[in-house]
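Please fill in the sequence for the structure shown.

STRUCTURE ENCODING:
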């Protein structure tokens, strides 16, 4: 009887007991506070400020003048913006077709072969350097007078193929895409290798017993199981290709003229060289909206993949 009364009174006593001291409740938030401040100061505030400036005419010196959506309406009448938009689409497609495809091929080729670790290391090494460093390196490779590529062509009797790789259009865009592919392929390969290591071995072994080998095994068994990683890698490549800047600026600065500019290069030129910072902010908003859209699909794919695991 006494035990029953004690059990009935226990919840009431817990409700009446005082909660944790205020200090103990605040302490966890204090640990989060520095990170939250960094997010507000270096992410949210710049985003809001950029969105506001996109609605103004602002040169960085005088007071901004509110013009509404005038900058956005001007964008699609600006031939330089349309050219950079076209170049950005080319870059985005190339960032998917070449680095992602080669990364998948190398991951499949070197996942289970002798000396595979050595070859994977060699392919991944370019991803450890910055895009700016890769741009400087390949600026010497593509130099017309004493660049490595033209020197090799002349040495083997193909001097007629020597070209002004970084000064002729559209050759300069193709040269920069080749540099980007060299620098990004290793990262995509590692993403696919992670996916290959997580594949269940039973379907693969069963397919081999049934006589399914080689390309048929890859096409019918491995690629369908690897498809979530293909989607994730493709979306990440689209986001990175859409906002590429440093490699282009180092190699051509968007030249000759402005023929090889992408949206990120146009944004930089308008904001920090021509001082049309309101117009530059409107380009930044366009880039951010597109990048956020693809980032949403990327994060959703990651979460779905984790849920399946």
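FILLED IN BY: designer on duty
SEQUENCE:
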């Amino acid at each position: 009887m006494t035990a029953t009364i004690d059990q009935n009174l226990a919840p009431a006593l817990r409700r009446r007991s005082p909660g944790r001291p205020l200090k103990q409740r605040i302490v966890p938030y204090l640990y989060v506070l520095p990170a939250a401040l960094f997010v507000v100061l270096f992410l949210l505030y710049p985003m809001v400020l950029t969105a506001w400036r996109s609605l103004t005419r602002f040169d960085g010196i005088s007071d901004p003048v509110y013009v509404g959506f005038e900058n956005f309406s001007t964008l699609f009448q600006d031939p330089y913006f349309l050219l950079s938009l076209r170049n950005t689409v080319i870059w985005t497609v190339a960032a998917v077709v070449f680095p992602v495809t080669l990364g998948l091929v190398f991951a499949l080729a070197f996942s289970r072969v002798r000396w595979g670790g050595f070859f994977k290391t060699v392919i991944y090494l370019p991803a450890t350097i910055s895009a700016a460093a890769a741009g400087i390196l390949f600026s010497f490779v593509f130099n017309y007078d004493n660049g490595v590529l033209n020197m090799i062509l002349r040495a083997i009797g193909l001097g007629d193929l020597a070209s002004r790789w970084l000064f002729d259009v559209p050759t300069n865009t193709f040269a920069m895409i080749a540099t980007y592919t060299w620098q990004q392929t290793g990262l995509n390969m590692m993403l696919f290798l992670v996916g290959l290591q997580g594949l269940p071995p039973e379907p693969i072994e069963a397919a081999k017993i049934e006589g399914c080998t080689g390309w048929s095994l890859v096409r019918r068994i491995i690629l369908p199981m690897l498809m979530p990683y293909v989607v994730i890698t493709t979306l990440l490549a689209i986001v990175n290709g859409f906002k590429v800047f440093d490699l282009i600026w180092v190699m051509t600065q968007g030249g000759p003229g402005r023929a090889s500019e992408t949206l990120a290069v146009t944004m930089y030129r308008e904001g920090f060289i021509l001082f049309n910072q309101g117009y530059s902010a409107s380009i930044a908003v366009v880039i951010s909206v597109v990048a956020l859209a693809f980032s949403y699909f990327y994060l959703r794919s990651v979460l779905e993949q984790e849920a399946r695991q």
